[in-house]
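I would like you to help me understand the sequence and structure tokens below and explain how sequence relates to structure.
___
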Amino acid sequence: MESRRSFLKKSLYSGAALSATGLLSVCSGRKKPNVLFIICDDLNDMVEGMGGHPQVKTPNIKRLMNKGKTFLNAHCNSPLCAPSRASMLSGLYPHTSGYYRIRNNEGDYLDWWDYPVLKQSHTMMQHFKNYGYHVMGAGKIFHQHEEDYSHFHEYGPKHSWGPYPWDGKTEKTGWGGAESYPGNYGSFSIDANYARLSNIPEILPDPEKGIPGYKGWRLYGKPFKYNGPDDRDLMPDELNAKWAGEKLAKQYDKPFLMMVGINRPHAAAFRAR
């Protein structure tokens, strides 16, 4: 392991840097390598190789770290999720774009596209597209509410915190498509983001509220099958990984940028309402 400063200092001479300057040189140079960009939510230093924790086993992350570079002193431009992603994807500081908080004084959620500077800027994905890359994505790349799939040539599974319980009737348009946020109906009173899949929700009929009732999980606007650990549908992150693996196995005429957003872990996941 080494510091980011040491790595970038050496990389500037070797031409291997993937800093902002390095990305420009990669895209505009003669050789255009394929780029795989993976982003996860709310990782910490409990993983193996970063101090670890006796109860945390992360052999794949440890193996990945051993093959690459690990930065011991890296910082994001904002301590908040949405402004941090906007800064990373646009290359603009929060104090430059004006996007440095998640909600306004009235409690309304603030979107990337509410800010003229960000709306008129190019994202990392658009930059790669402009330099001849085939740009693909899956999962959570933008922050929720802010997805713009026109920044990609093709997109796989979309962002979802599901599967969710369902009341058999109400289905709202959520992040990445139709989702279900029915709340604590019937016998199901555990937050969908934290409950075990084996704790199958059963929403009892409630004629006064117009709820016909429903049993089971729901994901991407469809029933989610769960008959046991070895007989179930894939979760969103599993779908993202499967999609990425299938795409990586193909041949492309152009160099590609593949961005894969993994939802979990996320300590402050949206709670079903």
